[in-house]
Design brief:
The protein is an alpha+beta fold and 379 residues long. It is 26% helix and 27% strand. It has helices at 37-48, 79-88, 101-108, 117-123, 126-135, 149-159, 186-192, 248-264, 301-304, 309-317, 344-348; strands at residues 2-3, 29-33, 52-57, 70-73, 91-94, 143-146, 163-167, 177-180, 198-202, 208-216, 222-224, 229-233, 236-242, 269-277, 285-291, 329-337, 353-357, 368-377. Strands 10, 11, 12, 13, 14, 15, 16, 17 and 18 form a 9-stranded antiparallel β-sheet that branches. A 5-stranded antiparallel β-sheet has the order 1-6-9-7-8, sandwiched between helices. A 4-stranded parallel β-sheet has the order 4-3-2-5, with helices on both faces. Mean pLDDT is 93; it is low at 4-19. The structure holds adenosine monophosphate.
Length: 379
């Protein structure tokens, strides 16, 4: 059966949570689950506001460890490791959505974990996520639940068009995805995704992709950044550009939709929502996915906004007033993937550009190692 949602409910972006705890003072410690570049940039932003950070992540190359006051490597289900984080941190956040829900729940018994456990539950499973979005009244791509090769066979018969088979869990940057079309072998496609519970998703003939990066404070106040156009290559974000070529109406609609999802999740922090933009003038936007965290398509805010997405996430989870999201420059953010990073000497010398190097030692194809923000200040 096709998994359909409802599209009837109205946008409501003004609901307040009514929570008003005292802001966390500088000198307090922000705990971060996950040690990648997002954790690193969150820690740098936290330091600017006078906070200390403690990062807990699995063993491996953790660039956030280099810039944190305290860091510890361990498994996400190691009680000692979690006890350490709860002991040192005043509030805990996460830099990726695949932090186990159990980990966040254990920590939440002793410390606030923000943006919260619900956002993790929703974002970790593509099927749960699509249902949640549809129940909020927002459009998602037509999709079918696939638990075995027979489900896949039935779904493609109904779809009768090119699709993508995606694992429900642990897919990112195009991983855990295979194209699937009528006539293809369902056994082979299901094997290619490791026979994992999946969704078959109709391929959207989009005109472009954009994302809304919004932030919601502890008292329910909300702000949003300008909406970038995103270009992906091989499932990985290549670049984000502001201003985007999409109409103001489309951009405002994307922000309103993302803020609606933030309210539904009772969310605190930065939330990114990725959209496909279709040629349907009445309903151009289809939600692709939710990221309950700072997002790669918001990296341009570091050099083109009064207050960037990382600082605003820290402000929100610390109970501070939100920072000014006003854009003060046109910008293109280019991801430096794999060997792109070897051009750092020339990129560092480029006028009007800001190089962000994540300090990762291991250069691998498909690995995000830095980004370049090309900036043109508004006159
Ligand atoms: P995802 O990991 O699901 O966000 O997919 C990564 C990228 O693959 C997206 O940003 C799109 O460029 C492409 N993609 C994913 N799903 C679809 C779809 N249903 N139709 C067309 N392109 C897609």
């Amino acid at each position: 059966m096709r998994d359909q949602g409802q599209h009837e409910r109205q946008d409501d972006v003004t609901t307040m949570t009514g929570k008003s705890e005292a802001p966390l003072p500088p000198g307090s410690c922000i705990g971060i689950l996950g040690g990648g570049q997002l954790g690193r940039m969150l820690a740098l932003a936290a330091a600017r506001l006078g906070f200390r950070t403690a990062v807990y992540a699995e063993d491996g190359e953790n660039p956030a460890f280099d810039v944190a006051k305290a860091a510890r490597a361990g498994a996400y289900d190691d009680p000692d490791g979690l006890a350490w984080l709860a002991e040192v941190a005043d509030v805990v956040t996460y830099e990726f959505e695949n932090v186990p829900v159990a980990t966040a729940s254990i920590l939440a018994r002793s410390r606030p974990v923000l943006p919260g456990v619900k956002a993790l539950e929703v974002a970790q499973d593509r099927l749960v996520e699509k249902r949640f979005i549809a129940e909020a009244g927002l459009p998602v791509a037509t999709h079918w639940r696939v638990d075995n090769a027979d489900d896949l066979k039935a779904a493609i018969r109904e779809a009768d068009a090119p699709c993508l088979l995606k694992t429900r869990r642990l897919g990112y940057d195009g991983k855990g995805q295979v194209p699937f079309a009528p006539g293809d072998d369902p056994q082979a496609a299901f094997a290619a995704v490791g026979q994992a519970p999946s969704v078959l998703e109709a391929r959207v003939a989009f005109d472009g992709e954009l994302s809304a990066i919004v932030v919601r404070a502890a008292d329910g106040a909300m702000a949003a950044y300008d909406v970038p156009e995103n270009v992906h290559e091989g499932g990985i974000l290549r670049r984000s550009t502001v201003p985007s070529r999409f109409s103001e109406q489309t951009r405002l609609k994307a922000v309103a939709m993302a803020q609606k999802l933030a309210v539904e999740l009772d969310y605190i922090g930065v939330l990114a929502v990725e959209f496909f933009v279709t040629r349907d003038p009445a309903n151009p936007l289809i939600v692709n996915e939710i990221a309950p965290r700072v997002h790669n398509s918001g990296h341009w805010t570091m050099d083109a906004c009064v207050c960037d997405q990382f600082e605003n996430h820290i402000r929100a989870i610390a109970g501070w007033p939100l920072g000014d999201t006003t854009r003060i420059a046109d910008a293109t953010m280019i991801n430096l993937i794999g060997d792109d990073i070897s051009a750092w000497p020339a990129l560092a010398d480029e006028p009007g550009a800001v190089l962000h190097h994540y300090g990762k030692a291991e250069v691998r194809a498909g690995r995000k190692l830095g980004h370049l923000n090309r900036i043109k200040p508004l006159s």
